[in-house]
Give the backbone structure.
Amino acid sequence: MHMRSLAIAGIFAVIIALLPATAHADTALRRDARGDAPSAIDITRVQYRHARQTVSVRVRIPDLQRRGRVLLRTTRFNIFEAGYIAELRIRRNGSLSKRLLYFDHFDVHPRRCAVGGSWNARAGVVRVSVPRACLDGHRRQRLYVDAISALRQRSDNAPAVKRLARG
């Protein structure tokens, strides 16, 4: 019986030690008006997350289809005047393209980075994540983040979070 108690205590200690690492992020939920963009790109809700290793967004688009693109913009400034753009885009062949760009006030420049993400049309959810290590000059405790969905010349901007703190 004593060995069993030690084993259970050890399991709890491991779980408690892991909790701060998995729960160590700040999140912000924003809702967006429905019907302000074509249904295939009409964002209704976003959840931004600023964690120790990544900055990410979960974008809810109820009528999402396998076309278009979703952007996560991140900057150290209080508005998006220069910073990083993580983009997920559906290619013509249906595959998913993931890339990181840097906007320098005038133009966008590709950056090498393993942008993460998924596109689930059935669930109406797109996820985009970028490692903080890729955000040169913008790895701050608080970041401006926003998300945009786009199809051809039309877009829908989700409400931004101007100072999302790292958890």
